[in-house]
Amino acid sequence: MKKLTPYLLIFLTLFWFGFGSDKPQLTPEELLSARVDSVLSLMSLDEKIGQLNQLSYGIGWGPTVKVSVPNEYKELIKEGKIGSFLNAIGAEFTYELQKIAVNESRLKIPLIFGLDVIHGFKTIFPVPLGEAATWQPEIIEMSAHYQALEAASAGIHWTFSPMVDIARDPRWGRIMEGSGEDPYLGSLMAAARVRGYQENLSNLNIIACAKHYAGYGGAEGGRDYNTVDFSERTFRDVYLPPFKAAVDAGAHTIMASFNEIGGIPSSGSKRLLTDILRDEWGFKGFVVSDWNSIGELINHGFASDLKHAGQISLNAGLDMDMESRSYITHLKELEDEGKVDEDLIDESVKRILRVKFMLGLFDDPYRYCQKEREQKNIMTDEVRIAALEVAKRSMVLLKNEKNILPLKKTYKRIGVIGPLANSKTHPLGGWSAMGDSVDVTTVLEGLKNYVDKKIDIAYAEGCKIDDNSTAGFKNAVNIAKKSDVVVLCLGESRDMSGEACSRSSLDLPGVQEALAKELKKTGKPIVVVLMNGRPLSIPWLNDNANAILEAWFSGVTAGEAIAKVLFGDYNPGGKLPVTFPRTVGQVPIYYNHKNTGRSGDLKNHYTSKYLDLPLTPLYPFGYGLSYTTFSLNDFNLSSGNLTEEDSIIVSVKVKNTGNYDGEEVVQLYIQDLVGSVTRPVKELKGFKKVMLKRGEEKSVQFTIHEKDLRFTTADMKFKSEPGKFKAFVGANSADALEKEFELVE
Ligand code: GLC
């Protein structure tokens, strides 16, 4: 008898389960499971293993790209030996690949296409660290929504984003891809991105993938891929929460990380991939490895060969193998040898089929391959306007001496100087998918467009980002001497952060600081615009520049956004999602540190400090200025006692005491004064970004519940402990008003 095609069998399954009859209806989940099971029941072991195999095959993207599929891949698809491609892009190219799967393979199971869309597909938004500086999850959700719109219109079903790794070491290049050092802020950002990508899973949404599970940002020395070894408590209370938040927000996939934790590589860890992720958290999606992270179990000395690596990873709960080819090569043999159960393979296959059903690919395998949508939805004004909004809000004002900013419209000449002043590529940042430098507005272009010839804009590169030539200094100094003010654009190249881009120094590369010193000698006011993918140690700039604007790599609209902020069309309201050290010697330095037995005190010799540095960072977590000023008053707690049943209302009045309308992020921190284990001196537990007109005052309220005080206690339980606490409210993590309260039994 001709094999039942999945579609026929799915229909029969639905009929059997009484679909459309007066029998009790299946719940959506039951229906989904029935459909998945019906397809699984048709599959051979080879075909099941094929679903667990993901390979990378991309030919670029755009109307000029010639679409062709090499025979190797055609055969793999026809034989059902591949379930997913990454880096296959474009409505037409993905259509060609999907057509082979749907027309020429035995079971016609559709492929799923993944791509790293982490801050834009074609319209590039600020890098995620910059997006986190908005402290506006709703803005991040909007950003993810538009990223998904463009990616889905180009045939992409699945993004390997959000990257939710907590990073406390700015030497680590991938700090750029995440939301900084704090688990509370990072969790909100993770959930917002998952919502924005997945939303209602229409055919203009894409599947999210929280990565890199887990602990990847804890790499020793800030060196990418390096050993991670921290306590279970730190793991659970600092590094895991954003992953839990992503799972709770409904992320359908998780990516296992390269690193080990305390001797066990994440990609081979049953504790991580099954015990925590599935048994504790109830995660129903599937886990994809990172690129060859299964194969790298051999390098870790955790597997003897690729076959052994596949056995470990599948038994640990890793469902899809990105690019190691261990599963497609060895799983059948491992199953024959009884080293891997077919039931376990079935579980992985079902998780993957479930996502393909949710994407609607069994109903219409080509629903993401619509060329007219690809032409209509990508790089539109609407998306660009969204990117501009996010870029403006991502910027953090670090210094503004004597209110040199906003720039005056009465200036005769502005000198725009620096290696990042007219760069078309670096504002894209790392992991910029199909972003094209041709679409980037540089700072020079943005300022010229803004002043519209009413102010003379003079430009000099001054120096390169990262070489030692000072040949350009003279011209830059000459331009500065003839200018009323200098906008000096400094920072890193886009390739100095991101994967495998750790730096041993946090200084400005090359001779950029030397250029700044030469320009300082002219006596002209200097406004520094920073473009960087990590915190930089800029103590000299902090002491000598008149103003400093942290602009990160803010994407295609960088120049427009920076011009609008510098001229005050938008009053910057961003806050740092990560601590800026004075020098790399302070690392690791983060706000939610422990008090130790000898907390730092420069007056007392025998305390935890450096002989040659102040105790404090250059800029603390949560820091950011405005063109206006704010005051916080009337800080009150509704009660001094908190019980499990009730809550405490924290209220504070914030007033705009300056001359511009502006936004302030009022932050709530809590300290547990005594615990069964030592507790951080502060932990962010809430924040509210409020817009205040000049002179306006608003009351901001937070609610503290007992659950907000929970942590991993000495007996490894996640619970609160009665005792005294402090509540802090402030505009950053360092300067805050405080009041005590007590959690009572
Ligand atoms: C890389 C990265 C990961 C990315 C994957 C696919 O090695 O670690 O973040 O999603 O490969 O490009």
CATH superfamily of the domain at 394-585: Glycoside hydrolase family 3 C-terminal domain
Structural class based on helices, strands and sheet pairing: alpha/beta
Biggest sheet record = 6 strands, mixed
- Work out the helicity level: 25-40%
Total helices: the number is 22
Radius of gyration: 27 Å
Q: In percent, how much strand structure appears in the residues?
A: 15-25%
Distinct ligands, ions and cofactors found in the model? alpha-D-glucopyranose
Instruction: Round the mean pLDDT to the nearest integer and report it.
Output: 96
Please supply descriptive tags for the structure shown above:
globular; binds alpha-D-glucopyranose; five-stranded parallel sheet; 745 residues; 26 strands; six-stranded mixed sheet; Immunoglobulin-like; 18% strand; alpha/beta; 22 helices; Rossmann fold
Structure, explained:
Among the domains are: 192 residues, Rossmann fold, CATH 3.40.50; 114 residues, Immunoglobulins (Immunoglobulin-like, Sandwich), CATH 2.60.40.10. Helices cover 30% and strands 18% of the residues. The chain contains 22 helices and 26 strands. The strands form seven sheets. The chain has a six-stranded mixed β-sheet with strand order 11-16-15-14-12-13, with helices on both faces. Strands 4-3-2-1-10 form a five-stranded parallel β-sheet. It has a five-stranded mixed β-sheet with strand order 18-26-25-20-21. Helix 20 links the parallel strand 14 and strand 15. Helix 3 runs antiparallel to helix 14 and helix 8 runs parallel beside helix 10. The chain is globular, with a radius of gyration of 27 Å. The mean pLDDT is 96. Bound molecules: alpha-D-glucopyranose (GLC). Alpha-D-glucopyranose (GLC) binds next to loops.
